[in-house]
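Every protein is a chain of amino acids, and every chain bends into a shape of its own. The fold becomes a row of whole numbers, each drawn from a learned catalogue of backbone shapes. The protein below has been through that process, and both of its lines are reproduced in full.
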Amino acid sequence: MSEAKADPKADAAPKSKKNILLFAIIGLVVLVLIVGGALAFFLLKSPAEGNADEAVAEANAHADAEKKEKEKKKKEKEKGEHKAPVFDKLQDQPFTVNLAGETESVLQAEIMVELSDEHEKEKLKGLQPKVLDAVNRLIRSKTLEEVKTTKGQEDLAREIREKINEIMEVEAKDEGVLSVNFTKYFYQ
């Protein structure tokens, strides 16, 4: 009988060693998975996330710089240190455009624009194809009767200025195109 009692204890000892070994292996596997997951997360992190943060920071810096520039211009105007306006031809040759209406009529005009500063001039140059198209369309929509009077010329100049400023996305009246001047104006 004593032998029978000794056998169950002998069997229990190897089982408990197996259980301890099994728990140790499972714990080690779980630890390796956790460490591997953490490494994968940090090492395989998308570089686009970093670029997005940089892009947002750059955009904010650009917006701040523009805001400071506008404030600087405003202060200069208040102090009376306003720079001389900049004049520029819309295109080298005069606009020659068929006018709307029953009769065949043509308007030929050379257009100079007065801009608030050199920055606006460069902005206008960058948008020149779009601006020229808009001005051509605007002039073509006019009739001979509308363009041959002084009031008609003034209205056309105002509409051209408004259209160009709209294309340039100008917010204030003292920015962008300040005036439109016809240096040649011929209709037939």
User: Anything to note?
Assistant: The CA atoms of residues 165 and 171 lie 8 Å apart.
